[in-house]
Amino acid sequence: MKAYSIHSKQSLIRSEWSEVSIGVQNGKWCAMRDLNKHTCQMNTDSLWMSPGKVYVDLEFPLYKVDYLAPLVRRFIYRGCTCIVTQVPIYSKREMKETYFAYIDELEGIAIDYMVVPRIPLIQLDASVIRFFGLQKVPFIIVEVTHKEDLLSKSWQWIAQAQHPSFIPIVPVYQFDEDTVTYKDWLKIAKQFGVRTLPKPLDEKPLSIENLRVTGISPFKGEFIHLGDADYNLYSIQQTKEIEAPDQMFYHKAIPYVTVLRGHILRAKLELNDYSGCGTHRSISIPNHFMY
User: Fold this and answer.
1) What phi, psi does 21 have (nearest 5°)?
2) How is residue 228 annotated by DSSP?
3) What is the C-alpha to C-alpha distance for residues 270 and 258, in angstroms, rounded to an integer?
4) What is the per-residue pLDDT across 180-231, written as a single tens digit (0 to 9) for each?
5) Coil, helix or strand for 104?
6) Residue 172: left if φ>0, alpha if ψ -120 to 50, beta else—which one?
7) How distant is the alpha carbon of residue 291 from its chain centre?
8) Contact criterion met (CB below 8 Å) for 136 and 181
9) Whole-Å CA distances, 85 to 62, 112, 114, 119, 248
């Protein structure tokens, strides 16, 4: 793959506008000094740039559809270059088979993907945590059906089982969230030393805090040397009245161009999703960034 450099006067980094100069080589971000002095530079004067977005498929789960491509295109339209997709685990006996079968099912989709288990809280135990820690998944989603289940769980044993992988555990509520907030969960996690995510999961791209705690960053979601060269380019007109862009602005912004590991995935209305260049990814170091 041909190397090139990017100089963007307006890039969205950690919800702030910054100037970025960075190189792309072999599908990875690199320092400008690592490039040949004759390397071509991309002109981004009329565009602003952001890292490729990383979504969890909470709003539109891939496992619920028979045909993956249309739903994956919906994520690409938003600028997603890596999707964290849930696989429901209803039986610990079939846990391994279910997990590996779902990974095989996703082979050939257009964007990179990570698979995380979604398991009822009552099924969560040391064997589940150890297995998925070894698989280097970014986190475990637990379904909480009743408030009492969250309060009565033996979290001290769960915290012990998280060693040495430190795989985070994050709840999704199947009841009225007004009765238990995510802040309430964070208090429980702090009390028993349970590794979790600092921000709740929702329909928006994963926050920088969650990307770092899970170990998805530095390989996805940031402009970091040796990370994947995933990025989006947008019309600069969209930012004229934006002084303090938040995560919702980032979620709603629709890119003109989406690039995955240096490959153009989408350019305006043209979508190159037939080559199936997405690959299954795992985190190399669990909980790479501590918080």
Assistant:
1) -130, 120
2) B
3) 10
4) 899 999 999 999 999 999 999 999 999 999 999 999 999 999 999 999 999 9
5) helix
6) beta
7) 17
8) no
9) 7, 10, 6, 13, 20
